[in-house]
Amino acid sequence: MDITPATAATPPPLPGGSQPAPAEQSKAAARAGDRIFLALSRGSGILLLVIMAAIAVFLTVRAASALSHNEGNFFTTFEWNANANPPVFGIAVLAFGTIVSSLIAMLIAVPVAIGIALFISHYAPRKLAAPLSYVIDLLAAVPSIVYGLWGALFLVPHLTGLYGWLNDYLGWTGIFAYHDGAARSLFTIGILLAIMILPIVTSVSREVFLQAPKMHEEAALALGATRWEVIRMSVLPFGRSGIISASMLGLGRALGETMAVATVLSPSFEIGKSLLDPGGGTFAQNIASSFKESGEIGKDALIASGLVLFVLTLLVNGAARMIIARRKEYTA
Amino acid sequence: MAKRIDVSGLSAFYGAHKAIDDISMTVEPRSVTAFIGPSGCGKSTFLRTLNRMHEVTPGGRVEGKVLLDDENLYGPGVDPVSVRRTVGMVFQRPNPFPTMSIYENVVAGVRLNGGRLRKAELDAVVEKSLKGANLWKEVKDRLNKPGAGLSGGQQQRLCIARAIAVEPQVLLMDEPCSALDPISTLAIEDLIGELKERFTIVIVTHNMQQAARVSDRTAFFNLAGVGQPGKLVEIDDTERIFSNPSVQATEDYISGRFG
Question: How many domains are contained in chain B?
Fold first, then answer.
């Protein structure tokens, strides 16, 4: 048998004149529908930038006016008396509370969410997977004030047992020391926020895991990988950037969550030694709690704290993008 | 190393649909057996029953026996995972793990099978497997670069290296050249000729010249009509199948009268 590689014969050159003339092409691009769509999409893009810039300018201008009146150090002062004369306020407690409660939320929610997402995408029988993902999505539809009420009326009284347990075994670390009292601490906020960001992290991760290429899963299977090994070799590496994006979406929500935190936390302007100590505060909670009673400078001071939150969120997103970009070479 | 495959009365299903019906055949060790036949005749499905990959498809189910020497792959208590460790597979589209380097791709299966090996042992496996896949010279200076950066033909040889790195008994190839250009195809075909010294090879191909070039035995599959299960029409020495097949349908297919 002769070896003749099946190469496609080169097509004969097209008869002259069959190629569209350049004039025809540019005329096609100038059709009304194309023009309208171009204007719409370009306009939307510009609008987005304008809105972002408007928010940034507004925050900066108002914040600057408050900061010029501030008698305390904006970054290190442990109090918020923006309506006093002279006004003294600082974001140290708010920044600490926001970051710590969000980190606790992430530490709890992300592993659980990845577990649920993997269960739905790779373990659960189809009959179970569909209703389960529906229920998870439904969790995202619950208004945050409802979470707040549930947190204040159910979670707070029921967490004292867990607090005692943590104190017994981890109390020696200091950060889990607990002395009696209502469980209205940053730790409780962290748990509540974890439940609130669970659905978004889960559903984004699930979508990414479902898109993991079949051919790489089969490659792992054919090498004799168990189900977990398939996930580790082909699904998780593929989903890595998706997991990061999902977590950042969740973190964004946790950082900015207002009503639920304001309902549960008993705010105070000190940083407790233990995560279980009641008190503390977050940027969003502080704005919600103090806005009504604030005067002109007080409102501007709150806006200044809002600006910090805005920048914090930008930094988080930027960091996430950097992590994703660094892995680009490997994500085919 | 290489083992004999003995299939008897094997049928495979997708849910209620029977994809292949009652297939029996023997594949000799250290030989190349090619499966040919029109699209949808079940040759790929049959191939995937030989390493229990068929049942990974939702609704996939198999009846019958596949003996590897004397061990029934579908016997009670046989773990499909361990079957796939003895019966390796190469797919239609090259599928190196995109997040892994060339080196990590080759040892991916070894790490699963052998647990932890020392670096020197892994290095030896990588060199041996890449040499076995005729890829060593081309990649030995960039083992830590991503496997996805290679050309299609190189990626497919990387996948072959990954499959043979675990020293399987049998190597299944599902149209391994259909996504490759003629030169890469030739490289893989040469490689198959070398690999059959060490492994039992079964290859599905749509390219009849390829079947004629690389295989010792050829099996022709066909189906009676749309929705009907695929059947094995005949299996014989490749030379006979291509010169003087015993069934008229085989001759019609090979001479291009249908399919």
Answer: 1
The CATH number of residue B232's host domain is 3.40.50.300
> What pLDDT, on a 0 to 100 scale, did the predictor assign at position B116?
73
Q: Please, which residues have CB within 8 angstroms of residue B58's CB and are 6 or more apart in sequence?
A: A126
Whether residue B159 is contained in a domain is answered as no
Contact B65, B128 (CB under 8 A): no
Per CB-CB distance under 8 Å, the chain A contacts of B53 are: 218, 221-222
Which is nearest to B65 in space by CA: B73, B57, B77? Answer: B73
In our burial notation (b when 16+ CB lie closer than 10 A, e otherwise), range A107-129 reads ebbbeebbebbbbbbbebeeeeb
Residues of chain A with pLDDT below 50 are 1-21, 23, 329-332
Which residue does chain B place closest to A234, by CA atoms? B97
Please tell me if residue B51 touches chain A, with a CB cutoff of 8 Å: yes
Q: What is the pLDDT of residues A268-321, one digit of tens each?
A: 888 888 888 888 899 999 999 999 888 888 999 999 999 999 999 889 888 888
Pairwise CA distance, residues A44 & A78, whole Å = 42
Could you list the residue range(s) of the whole structural domain that residue B238 is in? 5-95+172-254
With a cut of 70, which residues of chain B have pLDDT below it? Answer: 1, 113-115, 258-259
Beta bridge partners of B25: B7
- Kindly determine whether residue A222 and residue B84, on different chains, have CB atoms separated by under 8 Å: yes
ipTM, two decimals, is 0.89
CB B9, CB B24: distance < 8 Å: yes
Domains and CATH numbers, chain A: 94-330 (1.10.3720.10)
Rounded Cα gap, residues B57 and B44, in angstroms: 13
With both helix axes pointing from N to C terminus, report the angle between B152-165 and B182-195 in degrees, rounded to the nearest 10.
20
